[in-house]
Amino acid sequence: MPNAAPRPTACLALADGTLFYGQGFGAVGDTVAELVFNTSMTGYQEILTDPSYAGQIVTFTFPHIGNTGVTPEDDESVETPAAAGLVVKWDPTEPSNWRATDDLVAWLKKHNRIAIGGIDTRRLTRAIRQQGAPHVALAHNPDGIFDIEALIAKARAWKGLVGLDLAKDVTCAQSYRWNEKTWAWPEGYTQREGEGLRVVAIDYGAKRNILRCLASAGCDVTVLPATATAEDVLALNPEGVFLSNGPGDPAATGVYAVPMIREVLKKDIPVFGICLGHQMLALALGAKTVKMNHGHHGANHPVKDVETGKVEITSMNHGFTVDSQTLPEGVIESHVSLFDGSNCGIRMTDRPVFSVQHHPEASPGPQDSFYLFERFAEAIRARRA
Ligand SMILES: NC(=O)CC[C@H](N)C(=O)O
Question: Which CDD domains does the UniProt entry name for this protein (predicted)?
């Protein structure tokens, strides 16, 4: 029989009953999560290992995923992919890249992550845009046998990310020092040496390249676990406090993070937050966060600096957002998304306390927003002087 379609070995079931059949790869079994689409054309490994993707399966709109393999150098977190699973248009081909130490398929299998290939990711992305990021069950079985009713029931029963604190699952177990710099520091920026600006970074699921960028900007970084109290933070006598990115609902994580941040805000220390850190700084200042329809996940998102009018092309990965209508007096919206007008940054008007929704460390993506690391380091230097 010419061109017979291969027997499906994986099934993606959306909670509304929509089914996608394809070829399974990676681990065998099934998993439930929220499904989001990412529009990045490069950096699938950085995306899959970004701890902020915990609880989510990523479908890439770009069709060629896997063709540069994987290398430990590109991991954004310790070893394991944080994303719960992967959806691609075609099965990844053999990697072709001198940096590759493994191929994506073997790597997913080793790290127990399920993937499906050979499906219409454009149709799937349209479904996500229309119905909002759906709850899904993804199953891989080489025998091609699936209990569809059970998969749909699992997707329906899953409670979702709202109200979920995942930072405590992905944070570091113990505090540690970070001094490695980034290789991606763009032209025109100086790698700082030996200034030792004492920064405490709270790890809610921090991406490594954020820590590298802080080091490149001149910071001597001590990383503390997500549940660190204000006492833990202030005991290190920090000159600056950094709040990292991370997975889950900021309001749920805020149960322990917000009281810490509020105590830190009472001291006159520069504070910088990224993504989840941005959302929790906003909560600590009295604003509210809400779940978005399908969020922002990509490496080409235009963000406008409201004060200068300058547009930055940014990396994004978030499903919650700060409701800018709820920002209190003394806190201004510094950045907005040019895609949908949602909030992308805030700043206190009277001191260097600021945060952004996008990812200035890029990885993967454009480097337009690196200046934010310099702004943070500058604020610490100014306070020293
Ligand atoms: N990258 C992040 O820090 C994500 C923050 C939060 N978990 C969200 O989805 O909005």
Answer: GATase1_CPSase
Do the domain assignments include residue 350?
Answer: yes
Dist CA 363 CA 148 (whole Å): 37
Looking at residue 74, which CATH number applies to its domain?
3.50.30.20
Which domain-ending residue is among 130, 157, 184? 157
CB 319 within 8 A of CB 34: yes
Question: Which pLDDT does position 4 carry in this prediction?
Answer: 64
- Using alpha carbons, select from 227, 232, 343 the residue that is nearest to residue 282: 343
| Whole-number Å distance between alpha carbons of 272 and 373 | 9
ipTM of the complex: 0.98
Domain containing 63 equals 10-157
Which residues are catalytically annotated? 275, 359, 361
Residue found by looking up tokens 């709270």 in the block: 202
Residues 183 and 145 in one domain: no
What pTM, to 2 d.p., does this model score?
Answer: 0.96
Q: Is 37 annotated as a binding residue?
A: no
Q: Which atom of ligand 1 is nearest to the CA of 289?
A: 10
Instruction: Quote the ligand 1 centre to 320 CA distance (angstroms).
Output: 6
Strand-pair category, 19-26 with 10-14: antiparallel
Final residue of a structural domain among 124, 157, 190: 157
Shortest-distance Cα residue to atom 3 of ligand 1: 245
